[in-house]
Amino acid sequence: MARRGDGIYQRGRTWWLDFIHEEKRHYVRLGRNISKTVAGEIAKVKRGAILKGEAGIGGPKRADLIFDKAAEEFLAWSKANKRPRTQRIYGQCIARLKLTFTGKRLSDISAFDLERYKRDRVDAGVTVMVNRELACLKTLYNRCREWGSTRATTRRPGCGSCGSHRGGSGSSRPTKRESSWALRSSRCAP
């Protein structure tokens, strides 16, 4: 992911590094009474340590589930937390999604794969159910992110947002603009 600027700024006499990595905002104090050049050099080292996970900030790498295993966990969760009709619809959607995404890791499902899936389903004459299937996939993916079961944290399938422009709150909820964009992009023409 390309970044703009060097991510360092000065508050008072103290230089700070401020950047977002894997949807988490990192603030690191670089030093007091140092020049911008020195702060830039220190920032390179600190950023590298965070990206490598050496600083203890990034945390351990998440396991990345295969779609089949994630679907099983999701269906078990839905049996415990959703109404019977919702469980039935989720089961139908997952069964249909398994025909396409079996054997793929969740982090390997790209927006291109979803567009291909939508096109194939629309060509088959399905117009409404494809949106429900994609909504089910989105819910499955978000549950796995919440449980820490997937490595891909920067993009949800088909969302189109990189997560790097969110504010410092660390919230995983999309902004109103992002959610309306994701909703529009997930709809398909009849």
List the helices and strands and how they pair.
Blueprint: E1 8-11, E2 14-21, E3 24-32, H1 36-52, H2 67-81, H3 84-101, H4 111-123, H5 129-147, H6 176-186
Antiparallel strand pairs: 1-2, 2-3
Helix pairs in contact: 2-3, 3-5
Walk me through this protein's architecture.
By secondary structure, the protein is mainly alpha-helical. It has 2 domains: 45 residues, no CATH class; 120 residues, DNA polymerase, domain 1. The protein is built from 6 helices and 3 strands. The protein has a 3-stranded antiparallel sheet, with helices on one face. Strand 2 and strand 3 form a beta hairpin. Helix 2 packs antiparallel against helix 3 and helix 3 packs across helix 5.
Count of helical stretches: 6
What does the overall shape look like? elongated
Helix content: 40-55%
Structural class: mainly alpha
Q: Could you give a short account of the major beta sheet? A: 3 strands, antiparallel
Output mean pLDDT: 79
N-to-C SSE series? Answer: EEEHHHHHH
**Quaternary structure state of the chains depicted:** single chain
Radius of gyration: 20 Å
Q: Span from first to last CA? A: 35 Å
Q: State the name of the first-level CATH class of the largest domain.
A: Mainly Alpha
Strand order of the largest sheet: 1-2-3
